[in-house]
Amino acid sequence: MELTSDTETRQTTMTVTVRVPNGADGGLTTDAQRRLSRVEGVLAVTIEDLCRLQPGLSATEVTVRVTIETDIAPPARSITASLSELTGVTPVES
Q1: What is the superkingdom listed in this entry's lineage (predicted)?
Q2: Stretch 10-17: mean pLDDT, rounded?
Q3: Which of 5, 11, 18, 48 could crosslink 65 through cysteines, CB 3.0-4.6 Å?
Q4: pLDDT for 74 beyond 90
Q5: Residue 83 placed within a domain
Q6: What is the pLDDT of residue 6?
Q7: For residue 2, is it within any domain?
Q8: Which domain holds residue 19?
Q9: 3 is a domain residue
Q10: For residue 1, pLDDT beyond 50
Q11: What residues are paired with 67 via a beta bridge?
């Protein structure tokens, strides 16, 4: 049986900084990946590279290079705009 899909997907590679609270379940990159996956339209998140760690009193800022697969096709809302609305997530570059 052949499976087909009407959904177009798009991959975007970007660098983002994610604020991971101290005591979060799992590792820093795992938690960053989980937070980025919560955005509507995101199908998959792959951490390509850990770029920077900035420890803080209550959280660590993790800067990672990611590839995000979405079902958001142009001219729909961009993935950067969607990520910008997440608390603790700051896109660095796309």
Answers
A1: Archaea
A2: 90
A3: 48
A4: no
A5: yes
A6: 61
A7: no
A8: 10-93
A9: no
A10: yes
A11: 13, 46
Give the 3-state secondary structure percentages of the chain, helix then strand then coil, rounded to 5.
Answer: 15, 45, 35
Contact 8, 71 (CB under 8 A): yes
Question: One-letter amino acid identity for 57?
Answer: L
Q: Please, which pLDDT band fits residue 4 given cuts at 50, 70 and 90?
A: low
Residue with tokens 């920077």: 52
Q: What is the CATH number of the domain that holds 40?
A: 3.30.70
Which residues have a Cβ under 8 Å from the Cβ of 93 and sit 6 or more positions away? 14, 15
**CA–CA distance, 24 with 59 (Å, rounded to integer):** 9
What is the pLDDT at residue 57? 92
Q: What gap in Å lies between CA 47 and CA 83, rounded to an integer?
A: 15
Instruction: Measure CA 90 to chain center.
Output: 10
The reply to whether 41 falls in a domain is: yes
Provide the number of structural domains found in the chain.
1
- Is pLDDT above 90 for 15? yes
- Tokens 């997530």, located at residue: 89
